[in-house]
Amino acid sequence: MASLAGLIPLPDAAGLLPKWQLLVAVMAVFNTVQNFTTLKLTRRVYDRVPPELVTPLQARTFAIWTLTSAVVRFYAAYHIDQKIVYDMALFTYLIAFGHFSSELLIFRTAKLNPGVISPVIVSTTSLIWMFRQYDFYVQR
């Protein structure tokens, strides 16, 4: 069985979507660690507010939200055929898209930069991919 960096076995399900879920989950764990250890990258995302408004508390809260999404996506990587799991993973991307879009367009606390573009691209790509592949993976 192939593995991710030799540590995590790759999902057995057909197609690339389960492997994508695993990759995004692993990246989210790294983002979680970053949010617990430094404010530097978080302040880059919310760069239209004074740096002192991006607090350690906010970063830790964001870290827990990111870790929760990672757990759901990790589980979806290995159980992508289960409707409830698939739906929950899909909603994590919808929430991420809504959050970053609202920070860009409504609250205007962020501007287009790599820290914002990356989660917008990942969430948009994942949403479209999951909607298009729903019937392939989920047996109702």
From TrEMBL:
Q: Which GO terms describe its biological process?
A: sterol biosynthetic process
Gene Ontology terms, cellular component aspect? endoplasmic reticulum membrane
Residue ranges of the TM segments: 20-41, 84-100, 112-131
Its topology with respect to the membrane?
A: Multi-pass membrane protein
Classification via InterPro entries: Erg28
According to its UniProt record, where is this protein located? Endoplasmic reticulum membrane
Q: Does the keyword Transferase apply?
A: no
What the entry lists under Pfam families is as follows:
Erg28
Any one GO molecular-function label of the UniProt entry: protein-macromolecule adaptor activity
**Which keywords accompany this UniProt record?**
Endoplasmic reticulum, Lipid biosynthesis, Lipid metabolism, Membrane, Steroid biosynthesis, Steroid metabolism, Sterol biosynthesis, Sterol metabolism, Transmembrane, Transmembrane helix
Q: Please indicate if the UniProt record lists Transmembrane helix as a keyword.
A: yes
- According to its UniProt record, which protein family does this protein belong to? Belongs to the ERG28 family.
Q: What is this protein called?
A: Erg28-like protein
Highest lineage ranks of the organism?
Eukaryota, Fungi, Dikarya, Basidiomycota, Agaricomycotina
